């Protein structure tokens, strides 16, 4: 794990461990302990958790979760990383495991100051007092000046108000929290314990009671110093387990956005799909998607022309590559920073983000020598490249009975049913890759088919998965459907485990009240 400076560590802790907001449910704490970073086949908990991460890459979903309501007010782009961290950081650790700062025994200090202050030279006592109040952040006792009578009236006058002038009073400060000043506080307290002991040893008392009090005070300083050493070690261990969360985007027409989450064992990289919502808001409907940036991104589903990448076998989808390539350098820098070659790297994406996740996975493997453990896609088209590219992916992710590239599809999702490989092979020489995973209904009783056979021309007409669903079910493509289907599957197969995020609020299936992403 990369080490940070004291100041950087304190700031990082402040950013990464927000106080639990209303949107954070304590039951969700450390829910990713159910995530298996080495899974190679069907894993229902992984499916649900990754779908939730993919869902929250959309600003209106994140905004609704933070408010715990159904209003679709998006989080501004400038605040997205902070808000995403606020919503999800506790999914990867349990705040109850935060190291608790040791408590200094105030009794020994009070006995010393009340009974033995006069037995210590004034200069030494002033130094000791300064060390104590600076370290503990406690307010100094208020020294009162002589009373001043209001309006110069006699003291015995009824309802006289006595004005008190505080002398040498420091402002009252709340003790700093562990999260904001962990190392700084430790350094201050260490200075107090070390120099306080020196002062006490220098001032040997001749009074029997003060000698005993002084020895008790020195013993407490030593005990506290040991406790601080243990606390420092606990802080380092706890900090190493915290997730590092980054949001990556550009202001280009290719509209790429992604969220990277790094933990000590694995990295999750989720690509956002086409996000027309920010362009449509506050309109009540984002359908049809005719905004300039959205229209450009959506037109990229037509893979003409496909391109050849110098380091990737076969031909790949030009539009999704153009989008992923815009943030390639930023993502690779972060992956190297977090030692991705020695962790399990998981990629995910919904809609356009699904295509980006697959292409970026190939780029990591062939161009940057970074292994990829698994790719989960939700509502993406089945094809992003030709047969050569598909064979490369299958050999890497699905050989020897493994299924590390899984494409999740919901019935009537018009994007997932857009099978380019069923069209004219001369124009669209594309082939599906990975394992197709299919939900035949979005209900608690809906069936799930793992590694279902790929579509053919006949199945498109008989399974009710035709592209005609674009007009009949315009909301079937939204990421919420995939979260709900994964939740129901988890509920049926093993019961919803404790400490799992609840099912997201439903946005409805009316084209006027749901987004198209």
What is this structure's SSE topology?
Elements: H1 6-16, H2 44-55, H3 59-67, H4 80-88, H5 106-115, H6 122-136, E1 143-144, E2 148-149, E3 162-163, E4 166-167, H7 178-202, H8 208-241, E5 244-249, E6 257-262, E7 266-271, H9 277-280, H10 292-299, E8 307-308, E9 315-316, H11 318-326, H12 328-337, E10 344-350, H13 352-367, E11 374-378, H14 387-397, E12 405-410, E13 435-439, E14 448-452, H15 457-462, H16 469-472, H17 479-494
Parallel strand pairs: 7-10, 10-11, 11-12, 12-13
Antiparallel strand pairs: 1-4, 2-3, 5-6, 6-7, 8-9, 13-14
Helix pairs in contact: 1-7, 2-17, 3-4, 5-8, 6-7, 7-8, 11-13
Key traits:
AB_hydrolase_fold; signal; Rossmann fold; alpha/beta; disordered N terminus; two-stranded antiparallel sheet; eight-stranded mixed beta sheet; Lipase family protein; Fungal_lipase-type; 517 residues; 2 domains
User: How far from one another are the termini?
Assistant: 36 Å
Q: Tell me the strand percentage band.
A: 5-15%
Radius of gyration: 31 Å
Strand order of the largest sheet: 5-6-7-10-11-12-13-14
The CATH superfamily of the largest domain is known as: Alpha/Beta hydrolase fold, catalytic domain
Question: Can you tell me the number of structural domains?
Answer: 2
Keywords: Signal
InterPro entries: AB_hydrolase_fold, Fungal_lipase-type, Sec_MonoDiacylglyc_Lipase
Protein name: Lipase family protein
């Amino acid at each position: 794990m990369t080490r940070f400076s004291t100041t950087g560590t304190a700031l990082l802790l402040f950013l990464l461990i927000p106080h639990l907001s209303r949107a954070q449910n304590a039951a969700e704490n450390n829910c990713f302990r159910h995530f298996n970073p080495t899974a190679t086949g069907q894993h229902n908990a992984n499916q649900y958790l990754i779908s939730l991460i993919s869902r929250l890459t959309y600003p209106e979903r994140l905004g609704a979760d933070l408010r715990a309501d159904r209003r679709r007010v998006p989080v501004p782009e400038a605040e997205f990383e902070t808000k995403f961290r606020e919503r999800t950081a506790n999914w990867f650790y349990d705040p109850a495991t935060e190291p608790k700062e040791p408590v200094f025994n105030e009794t020994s200090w009070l006995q010393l100051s009340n009974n033995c202050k006069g037995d210590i030279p004034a200069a030494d006592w002033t130094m000791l007092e300064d060390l104590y109040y600076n370290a503990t952040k406690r307010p100094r006792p208020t020294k009162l000046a002589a009373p001043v009578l209001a309006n110069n009236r006699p003291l015995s006058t009824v309802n006289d108000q006595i004005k008190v002038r505080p002398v040498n009073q420091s402002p009252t400060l709340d003790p700093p929290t562990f999260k904001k000043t962990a190392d700084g506080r430790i350094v201050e307290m260490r200075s107090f314990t070390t120099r306080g002991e020196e002062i006490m040893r220098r001032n040997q008392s001749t009074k029997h009671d003060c000698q005993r009090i002084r020895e008790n005070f020195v013993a407490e300083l030593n005990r506290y110093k040991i406790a601080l050493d243990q606390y420092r070690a606990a802080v380092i261990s706890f900090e190493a387990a915290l997730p590092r969360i980054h949001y990556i985007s550009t202001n280009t027409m290719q509209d790429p956005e992604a969220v990277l989450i790094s933990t000590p064992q694995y990295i999750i990289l989720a690509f956002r799909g086409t996000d027309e919502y920010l362009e449509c808001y506050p309109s009540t409907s984002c359908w049809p998607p005719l905004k300039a940036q959205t229209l450009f991104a959506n037109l990229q589903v037509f893979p003409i022309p496909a391109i050849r990448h110098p380091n990737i076998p076969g031909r790949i989808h030009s539009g999704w590559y153009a989008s992923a390539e815009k943030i390639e350098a930023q993502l690779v820098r972060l992956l190297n920073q977090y030692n991705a070659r020695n962790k399990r790297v998981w990629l995910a994406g919904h809609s356009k983000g699904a295509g980006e996740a697959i292409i970026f996975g190939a780029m990591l493997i062939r161009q940057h020598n970074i292994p990829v453990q698994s790719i989960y896609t939700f509502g993406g088209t089945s094809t992003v490249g030709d047969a050569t590219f598909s064979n490369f992916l299958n050999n890497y992710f699905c050989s020897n009975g493994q299924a590390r590239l899984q494409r999740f599809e919901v019935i009537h999702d018009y994007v997932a049913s857009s099978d380019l490989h069923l069209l004219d092979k001369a124009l669209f020489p594309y082939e599906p890759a990975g394992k197709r995973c299919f939900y035949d209904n979005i209900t608690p009783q809906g069936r799930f088919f793992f590694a279902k056979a790929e579509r053919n021309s006949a199945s498109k007409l008989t399974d009710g998965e035709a592209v005609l669903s674009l007009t009949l079910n315009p909301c079937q493509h939204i990421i919420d459907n995939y979260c709900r289907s994964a939740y129901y599957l988890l509920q049926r197969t093993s019961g919803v485990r404790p400490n799992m995020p609840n099912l997201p609020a439903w946005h409805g299936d009316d084209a006027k009240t749901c987004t198209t992403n």
